[in-house]
Design brief:
- The protein has helices spanning 9-21, 26-32, 42-60, 68-76, 81-95, 99-117, 119-134, 148-193, 199-212, 218-224, 250-261, 273-314.
- It is mainly α.
- Among the domains are: 9-95, Arc Repressor Mutant, subunit A; 98-134 and 245-315, no CATH class.
- The longest helix has 46 residues, at 148-193.
Length: 315
């Protein structure tokens, strides 16, 4: 167990004599150590000494018969040479660092702490950003309708709304039929009072009107400014004041600043329908671009921190 191909019996005895002489002060032992044709490092001396001690203890008393005190001493003699070499190498690199490297390392550690602290917030912003790129944003929440009671309530609401819409349609049809009857009465009377005018002439005029009405093409609608609205609000409003901005919060101010830098006025000079639509699209595009730049800056900062950590581990 004491045999080692790299160490002879004489050199091992010489090492133990040096250890007794200098009371296990290995830096001094390494400085005074001289053996022909052998260059030993401090870790080599420690590894040979502690390995020999463990072997001698195990020869004198097997591990199964050792007392707790002896077993504790036996475990203390377990010397990891590779780990000690790595520790000394890291200590030397730490000792040789410049003040600038210390400042940079401190900055990286501070930035790493900030990133770890805001990691959850960054993930939330990233998920929101990906949703903005891939899917339209939703304004409502489906949480109230996830349970059975919520679904039943939703069904009742839909049924009640459909019943109300049917009632409105029936009332409107009844009013329309009454008005048509009232309008048809004087017409028929006039047709009786005025001879020479029959139903065939009226049908002919109606067909002529239908022939004259035609549907405009998309180019003609854009040329004449024809637009269709689902619902119009009451009152008079300027189109320039109805420009909707889908960018909210702090990003809105950044979008306005970016448009100002591009030379685009916050209020359109000729707010036509197409110009307002293009302006809203431009606002949304600039908002997405600013969010992308913000996320890119964060990702680049994370990459720099991780790269610095990797260099510290490898170095």
């Amino acid at each position: 167990m004491l045999k080692n191909d790299d160490w002879s019996r004489e050199e091992t005895d010489y090492l133990f004599s040096m250890c007794r002489e200098y009371d296990l002060r290995f830096p001094i032992i390494w400085d005074r150590y001289e053996w022909p044709s052998k260059q030993r490092s401090l870790e080599d001396l420690k590894a040979r000494y502690y390995a020999s001690c463990r072997s001698l203890m195990e020869l004198r008393t097997p591990m199964g018969q050792m007392s707790p005190e002896v077993l504790n001493q036996f475990n203390l003699y377990n010397f990891d040479k590779e780990r000690e070499v790595m520790r000394r190498s890291m200590a030397e690199r730490q000792f040789n660092k410049t003040q600038q490297q210390f400042a940079e390392e401190e900055m990286l550690l501070t930035e790493l702490k900030r990133i770890v602290a805001n990691q959850e917030k960054m993930f939330e912003e990233r998920r929101d950003f990906y949703q903005r790129l891939n899917f339209p944003t939703t304004t409502g929440s489906i949480q109230p309708y996830t349970g059975s009671q919520g679904l039943a309530h939703l069904r009742d609401m839909m049924l009640s709304s459909s019943d109300k819409s049917k009632k409105r349609k029936s009332v409107a049809l009844g009013q329309g039929s009454g008005a048509d009857a009232a309008q048809q009465t004087p017409t028929s009377a006039n047709s009786i009072d005025r001879p020479g005018i029959g139903g065939s002439a009226k049908e002919k005029d109606g067909k002529d009107l239908k022939r004259q009405v035609r549907k405009l093409t998309q180019e003609e609608e854009q040329l004449y400014g024809v637009s269709y609205h689902e619902k119009l609000s009451s009152g008079v409003k300027l189109r320039s004041g109805m420009v909707a901005s889908n960018v909210k919060g702090a990003t809105a101010a950044k979008v306005a600043t970016a448009l100002t830098q591009l030379g685009i006025a916050p209020r359109l000079t000729m707010p036509t329908a197409s110009a307002v639509q293009r302006y809203e699209q431009l606002q949304n595009a600039v908002g997405v671009l600013l969010d992308s730049k913000k996320l890119l800056d964060k990702l680049e900062q994370e990459a720099r921190v991780l790269k610095a950590q990797l260099e510290l581990k490898e170095g």
